[in-house]
Amino acid sequence: MNLQNPKESATSDSTESGSINRRQFLEISACTSAAFILGCLFDGKVVALSVDSGPEPIHFNSWVRITPDNKVTIVASQAEMGQGIMSTLPAVLAEELGADWARVQLEMSPTAHAYRNPRLNWQFTGNSESTMAFFDLMRQVGASAREMLIAAAAEKWKVDPA
To answer: Labelling 13: which of 20, 36, 140, 160 has CA 20 to 30 A away?
Structure first.
């Protein structure tokens, strides 16, 4: 329907100069939305994948991966909501692991059973309980990964891990 001429048929495709019909509006809106979304998803950097993408990381558990060149990836299951959780929990894990914080990178967890809140048994962030719920778990995960590294090194060097 042409708002400037209400008597014109609602099914008419004709438009006056400066006005658009519903179909054109929807097409323009869809294209604009797609461009906006793509602009938000991509930072403009072009990355070429090579056959040799670097050293394969060792997955100690769902929470920590270490590459042969000592880059540590810690998975964070809790969203940052202004309480510093994206540094608190990874720092606890890194401390127990004995990792160099400068070589640590963070990655958000996928939705998976392994990343659920250990106290409430479901994955969420809220109620100011992230540190309380995950502190001991992060200590155990870091210490466990450290013990695995010590055992692997002792086996390779043929020495007592103690």
So the answer is: 36
What total of structural domains would you count in the chain?
2
Question: What are 19's two structure tokens?
Answer: 């006005």
Could you report the per-residue pLDDT of 59-88, keeping only the tens digit for each? 778 888 888 888 999 888 888 888 888 888
Domain of 42? 1-47
The vertex-29 CA angle with 28 and 32, nearest 5°, equals 85
Q: Between these two residues, 120 and 18, which has the higher pLDDT value?
A: 120
| 16 and 81 together in one domain | no
Strand order in the sheet with 58-59: 58-59, 64-66, 72-76, 104-108
Q: Are residues 28 and 104 in the same domain?
A: no
The CATH number for 132's domain is: 3.30.365.10
CB 55 within 8 A of CB 68: yes
Helix (H, G, I), strand (E, B) or coil at 58: strand
